[in-house]
Each structure stands twice: as structure tokens, then as C-alpha cells.
Amino acid sequence: MIRTRPQAGLTLIELLVAIGVFSIIGAAAYAGLISVLEAREHADRRAERLAAVQHAVDTLGDDVRQIVPRAVRTDLRDRGHAVTDGPDPRDVLLLTRGGWPNPADLDRANLARVEWRLEDERLLRMWRNRPDATAATGETRRVMLEDVTDISLRFLDPAGGWQERWPGLDTLEASDDIPRAIQVRIELDGWGEVVRLFELAPGAYAPVPVDPTGAGEES
After folding, report:
1. Chain segment 51-106, per-residue pLDDT in tens
2. In angstroms, rounded to a whole number, what is the distance separating the alpha carbons of residues 59 and 164?
3. Which fold has domain 56-199?
4. How far apart are CA 28 and CA 41, in angstroms?
5. Alpha-carbon Rg of the chain, whole angstroms?
6. Which of 148, 76, 143 is nearest to 113 (CA)?
7. Are residues 144 and 56 in contact, defined by beta-carbon separation less than 8 angstroms?
8. What is the pLDDT of residues 29-56, one digit of tens each?
9. CA nearest 205: which of 170, 171, 169, 181?
């Protein structure tokens, strides 16, 4: 009579223990994967936010550096100053800028009237392809940055002093005066402040006249 040896195998308890161990390992691995994916998503959002902030600040800086001392003859909302912080609390900056090449000879000027405005925590850039605009002149509007809680400017005058408004409130006629530099402070929700100082292009503003003889000085 041939005797068969009992087959080796797992008992029910061992099988349940193995399933439990694998379940714990799988749950831990899944939690780790979720954490990695969330961290990556957060990093991607921060990178996108940083890119948006840099683009908006660079565009604003480019507008400031291209300012020209040219008031506009018609302005739909202001007196037509070459540079002004605007009459409306939502206004940030209105300016006339050059540096707009037209190699394709499009139906537009080489100067543009640009307006920056803060509406509902959105920083907007608007421009018209003719500086002397009328009601029929089309306007292009673009959202440059969101979640902006506040933005403020300071203007460096030709004498080296900082001004909170430009031009002065007593300037009634359209003025060609432009500052030497503009400091921009942007407050972002959850990010804090971004402060930048933009100098206008050399030669854009007239230097302060100096009398070498000193005849104009008070004794």
C-alpha cells in the first residue's frame, strides 16, 4: 500500500493574515502616492502663479519703460495727461507709450494709450491702437493677474522727490510731464507683497536745469 504525503499549504488563518498584510502595504503605498500627487499639483499651481506674476510685472515694467511725454488730445475718461494714476479709485495707471513697431503696416499708430486697472481683485490691462481715442476707437482688454488685493504706485519727480499722485491734483490741462521712475507695490492674496522700481528710458524726461553760476540761488 502506497502512502501519500500530506500536501503543504496555507491555512485559512495564514491566508487571512497575508491578505491583511498586503492590504496594509497597499493602503500605505496608495496614501504615499496621493501625497506625492498632491505635492506635485501644489508645486505646479505655485509655478503657474509665479509665471503669471512675473508676466504681469514684466508687462507693466515694459509699459513704464516705453512711456513717452505725449499727452493725448482726446481721452474718454481723463484729462489726457501723458502719465496719470487716473481719476477713478479702480485706476492704477494711464499712460502713452511708444516702442510699438508696425512692420506689417497695420492700421494703427506707433503710439498706444494703455490703461491698467484693478477690478474685483483682477489686474486688467487695456489699450487702444490710437492714442487720441474717440468713442468709436476699439479697446482691447486682458486680465493680467488675479487675486490682487491691492496695488499702489509712487512717482519719482525730476527733482528727486517721491509723489503719491501724478501729475498734481492742481494740474488741470493735459500735461506732458512724466516721472523719472515709478515704484509699484502689488499685494497678492496668500503671497504677500511684490515691490518693483521701474526707471523710464533715458531721455524720456527732461533733466532738472542747473544754473552753473548759481545766480538763481537765494543768498
Report:
1. 999 999 999 999 999 999 999 886 666 678 999 998 888 999 999 998 766 666 66
2. 22
3. Pili subunits (3.10.610)
4. 20
5. 31
6. 76
7. yes
8. 777 777 777 777 778 888 999 999 999 9
9. 181
